[in-house]
Specification:
Length: about 750
C-alpha cells in the first residue's frame, strides 16, 4: 500500500497550495468541532471570519518571524474589531474612523510587503466585524467584547497552526519557490530558442515582446525565492540545507544572466547560415536546456535524480556543426564564427550550471553570499519610506486617498438605502478596488461572475442538503477551495467564499434570505469600486510610462558600470554586482507590467503610448540582453591591455544612457545622438576590422559594446516618441511626473 500511494502523495505534497489549504482545513475543522461540541452553532461565523482574515494576513517567514508577525497582526485585529464595535452606534464617528483607518493602513503598506499584507488583513477583519455586528442586529446584549474576542480567537487559532506548521516544515516553501524559479527559467529558454529559428519573414518583434514578458515572470520568481531564503537565513547562517538552497538560488541567477544574453543580431546570423544546420542546433540546445530546467524543477521537489543527457548531446552536436563550418574556411563567415563560438561557450557554461544546480554542494564556495535586505532597518527608515510616498506621484498615496472615499461612499449608500446585509457592499468595494484600472476591471468582472456562480451553487446546496452537518462540511470544503484558488482562479475563489457564507449563515438563520442581498450588494460594491478607480485620482499607466522607461535605462547604466568595474577589478559575483543586475531586471519587469496594464485601459487614455511603449520595451530588453552577454564574459582587463582601452568607451555609453534617461524622466525631447554614436561606433569597429585582418583572437567585450552602442539611436528615437506621445497629457499628469 505505501508503494502504491507514496508517489501520488509526494506529488501532492509538492504543490505550493497544498500546505496552505491543509492548514486552512485544520483551522476550519477545529472551529467547526468546537462549535458543535459546545452546542453553539452561532460560534461558527465569527470563528470562520477570524480564520479567513488571519490566513489572508499570513506572511512568509521563519517560525520566529511568523510568530512576531502574528502578534502584530492580532494587536491590529484587536484594535480594529473593538473600534468597530464601539463606534458602530454613531455613524458620523464610525465614518470618520473608517476613512482615517483605511488611509493609515494603506500608507503602512509603503513600508514593505509584509506590512501591506497585515494592513490588508486588518481592513478585511474590520469589515468582517461590521458584517458580524449587522448579522446580530447591532451590538449584542452579551457585551461589546464578546464578538470581537471570537473573531480574535479564530485569527489566533489559525495563526497558531501556521506557526507550528512553519516550525515543522520551514524549508518546504523554499524548495517550492526554487522549483518555480527553474520552471519559469525553462519557459524563458524555450521562448528564447524561438529567436534562433532560422526562418525568414518571422515577426521577431512579437517573439521578443513575449520573451520580455516572460522575463518579468522569471524576475518575480527570483525575487520571491530570495525573500523566502533571506527570512529563513536570519540567525540560521549555519543551516546546511538552507545554505544549499542559497547556492541553488545563486546558480539560478547565473543561468538567468546567461539565458538572457544576446551575442549577435540573430537576423545577420540567419541570413549567413540559412542553408546550414548550426542555428537549428542552437535552437535545439536552448530548447532542450529549457526542458532540462523544467525537469530540474521536478527533481528538486521530489528529491530525485535529474537527467540532462539530451541537452548534453545537443551541445556536442552544436560543437560539431561549428567545427564543420570552420573547416570550410569561407572568408565571409570568419567574423560571424566568433560570436557563434561565444554563443556556444555561453550555452556550454549554462549546461554546466544546470548540472551544478542539482548538486550545488560540489560547486566552488563563493566569496560573497550576502543578500540585500529590502526591509526597513529602523522606525526612521520606515517613516522615510512613508514620507516619500506622500505625493500624488505615488500610486500608493493615490490608492490611500481613493479607497477611503470609495468605502465612505459605500457606507453613505448603506445608511441611505438601509439594505439588508448592507456591509457586503463595503467588502466587495475593498476586494475589487485596486491601485490601477486594469486590475480593478479584472477583479470587478471576476467578482461578479464568481458571486453569481457561488449563489447558484449555494442555493442548490442548502436546498438539496438541508442537514446542518452536511452544510457545515460543504462550508469547510468551500473555504479550503477559496484559499487554494484565490491567486490564480479568482472566479472559483469568489464562488467558493460565497458558498461558504451561504452555508455558514444558514446554520443560524435562513440562508435563502441572504441570496438576493448578497447579489445586490456585490453589484453596488463593484460599481462603487469601478467608479472610484475611474474618477478619483485615476492612476492611468501612460502618465508614468516615461518614468518607468527612464528607470530601465538608469538601472541598465548602473548594471553597465558594475560590469565594467568587474572587468577592472576581476570577476566576482559580489553583492554590488548582483544587486545592479537584479535592479536592471526588476526595472525591465516593472515596465512590462505597466504596459500590460495599459493594454487593458480605455482607448481614450491609452492613445498611442502603449504601442510606443511596447517598441521601447523590445529595444530596452534587447539592450539588457547585450549587457547580460557582456557580464557573462567578464574577465580581468589587466591581463589584456587592448581590452583595457575600451573602458572609456564603455563610460561614454553609460553617459549617453543616462542622458536619455534624464530626458525621459523630465518628459523633454532628446537631442540628436546619431553623430556622437557614429563616432563611438567607428572607434569600436576600427579595432575589430584590424583584428579580423590579422586574425587576432575574438574580443567579446569589444563586440558587445558595439552591439550596445548600436542600440542607443533606436532607444533615443523610441524615447522621443514616448515624450511626444505624452506631450498632450493632462496637467495633472505633468504635476504627478514632476
Amino acid at each position: 500500500m505505501p508503494t502504491t500511494f507514496s508517489l501520488p502523495l509526494r506529488r501532492l505534497w509538492t504543490l505550493d497550495k497544498f500546505a496552505y489549504s491543509l492548514r486552512v482545513f485544520l483551522a476550519f475543522s477545529g472551529a467547526l468541532l468546537l462549535s458543535w461540541g459546545l452546542g453553539e452553532v452561532a460560534l461558527v461565523i465569527p470563528l470562520f471570519l477570524g480564520i479567513i482574515a488571519s490566513a489572508l494576513s499570513e506572511t512568509d517567514d521563519s517560525w520566529q518571524g511568523r510568530l512576531q508577525a502574528l502578534l502584530v497582526t492580532l494587536a491590529c485585529f484587536a484594535v480594529a474589531s473593538f473600534s468597530v464595535q464601539w463606534l458602530y452606534p454613531w455613524p458620523w464617528l464610525f465614518a470618520a474612523g473608517l476613512g482615517l483607518a483605511t488611509f493609515v493602513l494603506i500608507m503602512l503598506g509603503a513600508i514593505g510587503q509584509r506590512y501591506a499584507t497585515i494592513a490588508s488583513g486588518t481592513l478585511i477583519l474590520s469589515i468582517y466585524s461590521m458584517i458580524n455586528i449587522e448579522h446580530h442586529g447591532g451590538v449584542p446584549d452579551d457585551g461589546p467584547w464578546h464578538q470581537p474576542l471570537l473573531l480574535l480567537a479564530g485569527a489566533a487559532w489559525y495563526g497558531l497552526i501556521s506557526v507550528i506548521w512553519c516550525a515543522l516544515f520551514s524549508r518546504q516553501p523554499v524548495k517550492q519557490s526554487m522549483a518555480r524559479v527553474y520552471k519559469t527559467l525553462g519557459e524563458y529558454l524555450v521562448l528564447k530558442s524561438a529567436l534562433l529559428e532560422p526562418l525568414r519573414d518571422v515577426d521577431l518583434e512579437a517573439r521578443r515582446l513575449a520573451l520580455a514578458r516572460q522575463n518579468g515572470k522569471v524576475v518575480e520568481a527570483l525575487n520571491q525565492a530570495k525573500e523566502m531564503i533571506f527570512r529563513r537565513l536570519e540567525g540560521q547562517r549555519g543551516d546546511r540545507k538552507l545554505n544549499r538552497y542559497l547556492r541553488i538560488y545563486f546558480i539560478a541567477q547565473d543561468i538567468h544572466e546567461r539565458a538572457s544574453s544576446t551575442h549577435y543580431p540573430y537576423a545577420a546570423l540567419t541570413e549567413a547560415f540559412f542553408h546550414h544546420d548550426v542555428l537549428f542546433r542552437c535552437q535545439r540546445l536552448l530548447d532542450q536546456q529549457g526542458l532540462a530546467c523544467r525537469r530540474l524543477a521536478k527533481a528538486l521537489l521530489l528529491n530525485r535524480g535529474f537527467d540532462h543527457r539530451q541537452s548534453e548531446q545537443a551541445l556536442e552536436d552544436l560543437r560539431a556543426s561549428i567545427d564543420n563550418l570552420r573547416d570550410q574556411r569561407r572568408p565571409e563567415w570568419r567574423e560571424l564564427l566568433f560570436p557563434l563560438e561565444a554563443l556556444a561557450d555561453n550555452l556550454a557554461t549554462l549546461e554546466s550550471q544546470l548540472a551544478s544546480a542539482h548538486n550545488p554542494d560540489a560547486d566552488e564556495p563563493r566569496r560573497d553570499d550576502a543578500l540585500f535586505d529590502r526591509s526597513p532597518s529602523s522606525l526612521r527608515d520606515a517613516w522615510e519610506r512613508i514620507r516619500l510616498n506622500l505625493t500624488l506621484a505615488s500610486p500608493t498615496f493615490r490608492h490611500a486617498l481613493r479607497l477611503p472615499l470609495a468605502l465612505l461612499a459605500g457606507y453613505g449608500l448603506l445608511q441611505w438605502l438601509d439594505p439588508q446585509q448592507g456591509f457586503w457592499i463595503l467588502l466587495t468595494t475593498l476586494f475589487v478596488c485596486r491601485p490601477n484600472f486594469a486590475t480593478t476591471r479584472r477583479f470587478l468582472t471576476q467578482r461578479i461572475t464568481g458571486t453569481v456562480l457561488g449563489l447558484v451553487v449555494g442555493w442548490a446546496s442548502i436546498t438539496l442538503f438541508p442537514q446542518p452537518l452536511v452544510q457545515s462540511l460543504i462550508a469547510v470544503i468551500a473555504g479550503v477551495a477559496f484559499f487554494a484558488n484565490r491567486e490564480k482562479h479568482y472566479v472559483i475563489a469568489t464562488a467558493s467564499i460565497t458558498l461558504l457564507v451561504l452555508c455558514s449563515f444558514n446554520q443560524v438563520g435562513d440562508g435563502f434570505d441572504l441570496i438576493w442581498p448578497r447579489l445586490f450588494d456585490t453589484l453596488l460594491g463593484a460599481l462603487i469600486a469601478g467608479l472610484a478607480v475611474f474618477f478619483i485620482l485615476p492612476d492611468w499607466q501612460g502618465r508614468r510610462l516615461n518614468r518607468e522607461a527612464a528607470k530601465v535605462l538608469t538601472n541598465c547604466r548602473g548594471y553597465l558600470d558594475e560590469i565594467i568595474h568587474q572587468y577592472e577589478a576581476g570577476k566576482q559575483d559580489d553583492l554590488a554586482y548582483r544587486l545592479a543586475r537584479r535592479n536592471a531586471h526588476n526595472a525591465d519587469a516593472a515596465l512590462s507590467t505597466v504596459l500590460t496594464n495599459m493594454l487593458h485601459e480605455p482607448g481614450h487614455y491609452r492613445k498611442a503610448e502603449a504601442d510606443d511603449g511596447l517598441r521601447f520595451l523590445v529595444l530596452s530588453h534587447t539592450l539588457l540582453s547585450h549587457l547580460s552577454a557582456l557580464g557573462a564574459h567578464r574577465h580581468r582587463l589587466a591581463d589584456d591591455e587592448d581590452d583595457a582601452t575600451l573602458v572609456p568607451l564603455a563610460r561614454e555609453i553609460g553617459v549617453l544612457l543616462g542622458e536619455i534617461a534624464e530626458a525621459l524622466a523630465a518628459r523633454r525631447p532628446l537631442r540628436a545622438l546619431e553623430a556622437e554614436v557614429n563616432v563611438l561606433l567607428e572607434r569600436l569597429e576600427a579595432p575589430l576590422a584590424e583584428a579580423a585582418e590579422a586574425q587576432a583572437p575574438y574580443r567579446p567585450i569589444q563586440s558587445q559594446l558595439r552591439l550596445i552602442a548600436q542600440q542607443l539611436v533606436p532607444i533615443g528615437e523610441a524615447a522621443n516618441r514616448l515624450v511626444m506621445a505624452g506631450a498632450g497629457a493632462a496637467p495633472e499628469a505633468s504635476a504627478a511626473a514632476a
